[in-house]
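pinging the channel bc i need a second pair of eyes. not urgent but kinda urgent?? the chain im working w is below, pasted from the shared doc
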Amino acid sequence: MRQHQPEQRNLFPTEDLIVPESLQKMRKAVAAIHAIPRNPEDSQNLTNRRVFDGLIIVAQIHCRQRGKEFIQRIRDERVSPLFEVRTSELGKLSGIPGKNYDRIIEEISRIYEMDFEFNVCAEDGETIWENRARLLSSLGVGKNHKRGYIRFAMDPEMLILLLEPNLWASFSLSVMHDLGTSAAYALFQQTYRYINTNQKLTAALPTKTWIELLVGKNRYVKDIDGKEVINYGEFKRRVLNDAIEKVNEVPALTYNIELKEHRQGNRVARLQFKFIPKEPTLQLESTWPEDILTVLKSIGFLDKEITDISQAHSSASVADAICRLKEAEQRLKSEGKAISSRKPYFLGILRNIAAGEDDIDPEKIEAEVRIEMAERAAEERKKKMQDAYDEHRRKRFSAWVTSLSVEDRKQLIADYEASEDFNPVLGKSLKKILTEENRSGLSTLRVWMEKHRSETLAGVFNTPEYQSLEGWMMWKLSGDDAIEA
């Protein structure tokens, strides 16, 4: 690993640390990287998590100050700089109150010794790479005239992950500092990366993954005689409920997170979180200038969307983006061109500002907006077709069930109730008459049959239009029943 000269200039000026507006956001994983200590004894407390993130912020600030060419050199040549920062500055960046700098150094030393699993995940939350690495490759603590300073390095491969914008998203440092426990801090990080998704839902990750993300390797997941046993009930009671409550209590956040449990039989197999708007919502009229609100509404943003923007961006950044939008419109107009859609174009400018980009190319953003709009239209069309196909299969299954004799229907329900997957709560819907209106009961029965009566179900869906989305589309087209756009 190459390193820069030891006597490089200090990262920050000698005055009190003031983080620039463009750096008031830190980059954190977006459904892409899960960092979990490998050893149970290395569980991260709140201070440790904050220092961990503070070290990442220092590395990002330093590399961004050096410019795009330097970041590209890290990627191409696998070089890594030696970062140097005052312990007090690291404490401020990490949101650690007080002046217990010995505690900060103690936690840095722990992080240096800790072996992590950096699991890279796909969009659906499934792990595609299991990486084992340490965050720091070297650590120095200043003595004598260097007392109060620390210096550290990261392996180039690790640093590349931390600098990759496609894998890391912005989080407000002020919000991070309001979280009072390690588990709440981790829960906020892992859930709020999904705040801008259309459905306002996180990925449905395995229960074990959520447990390890919040508390690391722990007693809630045990290996007993070669079989993995998860004590989800105790974890939920002792850790998860309290973490959810603390995240929802943060006044700067205008959403509550709501737990959704996905079961396999009687076992909670996956956890997911849904964002629920708080009531009343943030009163922007008292905190943002009226002219900013007026312009945003003229662009096409609804009050709720403006509230969402306020969660991630300051009024100064939004005002800057508005000015740049007007400049871009004037420039394109002088060239005989026009912006295809102001709303996504504005959001593109805002994302660039949040990422610290000073030079914003209007034509580049316009090209990105056109691609984004085309992808969104394709995604909406695909979802509409998928919904129609699912409804087509649902009606077919409903018709098959109602065609059964009373005795056969009762036997099918009895088989479900006698199986290991029987859920008393879901089973209540089967006590009602299984007609078209009883969607809950039919859905419960169908899910069970997919697992235990697959051959019977294959007989129900025995023609191509019930077996795949593509087959259904061909059936629709052949019947001259065009799909609506």
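so The first helix runs from residue 46 to 66. and The chain has a mean pLDDT of 78. — does that match what u expected or am i reading it wrong
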